[in-house]
Amino acid sequence: MTEQEAVLDANRAFYRAFESLDIEQMEKVWLKEPTIICIHPGWRRLVGWGPVMESWERIFEATFEMRFELVEPAVLVGGDLAVVVVQENLTQKSADGIMRTQVLATNVYRRSGSGWYMVVHHGSPIAVAGSGEPPLQ
Question: Which domain holds residue 42?
Fold first, then answer.
């Protein structure tokens, strides 16, 4: 297995944990360090194991179901760090009903032991152009 394939496997594990809505699964994909960072769309920057895991718990508690379609993942690997940039086409069900969104995510992984673990997740909503307007590039 190439380094890129191993990183893509780690990235798929992150999205499986996300879809599971199970905090124990999410904890397994993150490197347990005080320097991890998570930026959910529209949220402030969260730093450290406690704040990051608490954010996932809040999301999971408010969501009934979540499904991702990942579009065009791009992988960069350099030494013990790797970056995956991917478009998330997300469908989620909550008390507010069904919502579909598109997010551009940057996921950073660090090699630790024999595996790759997330150290940064940054999601930014993709702006939807008005009718007749091209999307921003």
Answer: 3-125
Residue among 44, 49, 43, 46 at smallest CA distance from 30: 49
pLDDT digits (tens, 9 = 90+) for 2-31: 999 999 999 999 999 999 999 999 999 999
Residues 135, 127: contact at Cβ < 8 Å? yes
What is the tally of structural domains in the chain? 1
**Tell me: the pLDDT tens digits for 117-137?**
999 999 999 987 555 555 544
β-pairing, 115-125 vs 37-39, is parallel
Type of residue at 92:
Q
Name the strands in the sheet holding 97-112, side by side, starting at the edge strand that comes first in the sequence. Answer: 46-47, 37-39, 115-125, 97-112, 81-94, 63-78
